[in-house]
Structures are given as C-alpha cells and as structure tokens.
Amino acid sequence: MDDRVHTSTRSFGETPPGFGAAGRDLRIDVCRGIALWWIFLDHVPNNIGSWLTPRNYGFCDAAEIFMFVSGVTCALAYGRAREREGWSGMIGRSLRRGWDIYAAFLLLTLACAILVYLAGSNELADESNTRILLEHPGATLAHAAILQYRPVNTDVLPVFVIFHVLFAPLLWLLLRAPNVTLGASLLLYALVHVFGWRVPAWPNGVWFFNPLAWQLLIVLGAWCVIEGEKFRPWVMSRPALVFAVIYLIFGLVLAQSWSIEPLVPQTLTDLLAPPDKSNLSPMRLLHFVALAIVALRFIPRNWEGLSTPVLNCAKCCGQNSLPIYCFGVLLALASQLTMLDPSEGLAMQIVVSVAGVLMMIVVARILNAISIKREWKSAGTQSIGKVPPVR
C-alpha cells in the first residue's frame, strides 16, 4: 500500500478529515430542510409558491441539492459508524436504513392510493399514477415491492433504497481509491448519456430518476467528505467563483426565456431546450456545481445566520428528512383535491404553500420532541442500578 500514489489511495487505518470534523455541520441539515420545502412547493401544481424555488431560476432544482446532501450525510454517518463498530456494524446500519426507506415507500404508496380513493377523483387518480393501483392492486403492489412501480412524487425513495443498500461497497472503494471511484462514477454517467442506459420500470418502462445517472451526485457528495479538502483551495478560488457566477447568470436568463418571455434569440432557446431531469442533464449538473461553489464561498460553517428561527425550522425538518418528505408528498397530493385546489386563485395558492410548510415544521418539531424523550428514557433506564461515581 505504501507504493501506491498518495493522491488517489487511502489506507484503511487513515481517518479522512471529514470524519473527524468537530461537531455537526449545521449547513447540512439546513440545506436538506430547505430542499424539502422547495420539493413540496414544486410538487403542488399551478403553485405561485414554486417561484420561491430554484427551478424557475436555472437548470437544476431542489432534487440535486437533496441528492448531493444525502451523499454527504451517508459518508459522514456510515464512515463514523465504520470507525466505531467496524465494517459489520456499518453494513448493518446501511441495510437497516435502506429497509426503513423501503418500508416508508410502500406505506407512502398505500397512503397515496387511500387518499385518492377517498377523494373519488378520476382526474387525481390519473395525475398521481394511482389509477392502475386502484384497478389492479395485486399486480401493482407486486411491482411496487420490487421498486418498479411508483406513484407520482415518490420516485426518489426507491433510488435511495438502492444507494443505501450499496453504500458499503461504495464507501470501501472511496476509502481505498477515492479519485478512481469518482472517475468510474463519471464514466458510468457519461455512458448513460451516450447509450441511453436505463433501469426497467413498470408500467411506463423507465424510472423518472435514472439511478445510473443520479448516482453521480451521491458519489460526489461522499467523495467531497473523504477527499474534498484537497480540492477546497481550487473550489474557493476566484476563477471558480467567476465561472460559477457567469454560469448562474446564463442559467437565469435562459430559464426566464423558457418560462416568461424570450430574452435570448429564439434559435438559441430552441437549441438549448429545458434539460432532461430523468438522466441528470450535464447542464443541470453544472448548474448545481455552480450553486455549490457560491454557497460554500459565502456561507461558512460558523455563519451566525444558521441559528436564526427560520433556518432552525429548516434544520429541524432536515433532521427528519424521511418522514417529512413522505408527509410533503401527501400534502402536495391533498392540495389537488377540490377543497384545496390552488388553481382557484392566488390567495388559495399562498394559503396552501404557507400552510404546507408550517405543517411540515410542526411535524418535524413533534418528531424531535419524541426522539429527545426516548433518549432521556433510554439514559434513565441504563443508569438504574449504577453506583454514582465518587467525586
């Protein structure tokens, strides 16, 4: 191992700098919480609240942020678990988390079907892709069990199931050869765009989030934890910031041309059609990278704004990402019912957007309170029968 190139390999006994960082980086939970709010606002159709999300101001949206941050959190959580419990403990944790997401996906699928059935709306059944579940429950649930069927807005959960189950070998490769692993991920991403590789699904034949393409953001997030410090000077450099700002301005102008009125020649607008989300278009990927560079430059780890009430609420939602995401999907589906139809007027759209985000915050606060109470009970149970230490 000593004969290997230092920049591309890492000894298993060596702790990556990201694993040993003191304290929890609040930016991770805040970014994930804000991304959850944005995802909910984007999922509500005809919603004025979606103009608060990055979808209308560039090529990427909250999905890229959520996927990348998930790669970061997986690397931190499972990397530290490997240090404390070894590979067997780390694998057990990743498999249990994958099972939790799998169970949440199946329960969310059933909840969507029940909500649509109670609503009695054929149009909602078509829009939510649950008509086939209501008409053919046996076959549909069987395909859902093998992650081939998904109601609308639940597509990201099967992708996370796969990534959590496979994260142990990914972490092994990243710790052994981080740059080679990232290069292999980039190669797979390129081959997807060259040959159109996809994972089969049912009944429409394709996954909305093609895991063969979106794996790049997961790998990139984990790679940043393990190897990113070596490239931090380049990311924080002035040329990188200039590139990022220019590309963000370009994305803003083009996005406004697609959604409002042409700001650039029509030939250019037609040539650069809205980038493909299913396969993570390179334009979307570069836009996310530009956003990340700007965010890292102007939002340091110890930024005081992270402790403001609004961002504290976002942090709370980010700490409970799985249940809050599922809750947001149900809220977006409920907003399409007749009594909460946001297309009825601007006032209703605002009410739905604000009420939905507030309900997500309340649920996250309740979940945090329950978690703290369980920790107290657990600590109290473990302390029973112990002799107080002599001071």
UniProtKB/TrEMBL annotation:
Domain of life of the organism encoding this protein: Bacteria
Coiled coil: none
Record keyword Transmembrane helix present: yes
Membrane spanning stretches: 99-119, 156-175, 182-200, 206-228, 240-260, 280-299, 320-340, 346-367
Signal sequence extent: none
Keyword Cytoplasm annotated: no
PANTHER family: BLL4819 PROTEIN (PTHR38592:SF3)
The protein's name: OpgC protein
The species this protein was found in: Bradyrhizobium japonicum
Lineage: Bacteria, Pseudomonadati, Pseudomonadota, Alphaproteobacteria, Hyphomicrobiales
